[in-house]
Write a structure and sequence with these properties.
This protein is of the alpha/beta class. The chain is built from four helices and nine strands; from the N terminus they run βαβαβββαββββα. The chain is globular and about 45 Å long.
């Protein structure tokens, strides 16, 4: 039972599912008649992205992944972005939906959006499960957001602490004594 490690449960499985369905309907409408490539940022996106793409009504979409790191073993971003796994598809002239678990300081995602923009996609939109605006350091906004959240170290639905808690079916704030 990992629930005892939580300070608070922010979103239940049912709340996550309901909001992801709403967001998928909006994205499906925005991309009607288009063939976007949906690029997930591993590892944190995998549960959210799987739930999202199963709800999308976009017959011609394709999926791809990237792995990017800006964290070591702690809870604070190093500010350096390291692309560990790049896309396998060319995105030049394609509509791109970049899927990430959380938009926090904005450092990692702004650098990634800048890098992908150099590849000349037709469009590039950012979709995040969680947006923690009060911690934003670099100005960037997501086009699609499931939930705005307060500052706190969140886990579950793909988000982790030292590779643990990703499998939780809810999103919770981890008790500070767990990671301090």
């Amino acid at each position: 039972m990992m629930e005892q490690d939580m300070q608070e449960i922010l979103f239940t499985r049912e709340q996550l599912s309901s909001r992801i369905k709403e967001l998928a309907a909006q994205i499906s409408e925005d991309y009607r008649g288009k063939a976007p490539v949906v690029i997930g940022i591993l590892r944190g996106c995998f549960i959210f992205m799987a739930d999202l793409v199963r709800e999308l009504d976009i017959p011609q979409m394709t999926l791809d992944f990237m792995s990017v790191s800006s964290y070591g073993k702690g809870t604070v971003s190093s500010g350096l972005v390291n692309i560990k796994l790049d896309t396998s598809e060319t995105i030049t002239g394609r509509d791109v939906i970049l899927v990430e678990d959380i938009l926090d300081t904005g450092n990692t995602l702004s650098k990634l959006v800048e890098e992908l923009g150099k590849r000349n996609p037709a469009s590039l939109r950012l979709c995040v499960l969680l947006d923690k605006t009060e911690r934003r350091v670099t100005p960037i906004q997501a086009d699609y957001v499931c939930f705005q959240i307060p500052d706190g170290f969140v886990v579950g639905c793909g988000l982790d602490y030292n590779q643990q808690y990703r499998q939780l079916e809810y999103v919770g704030i981890l008790k500070p004594e767990i990671y301090e």
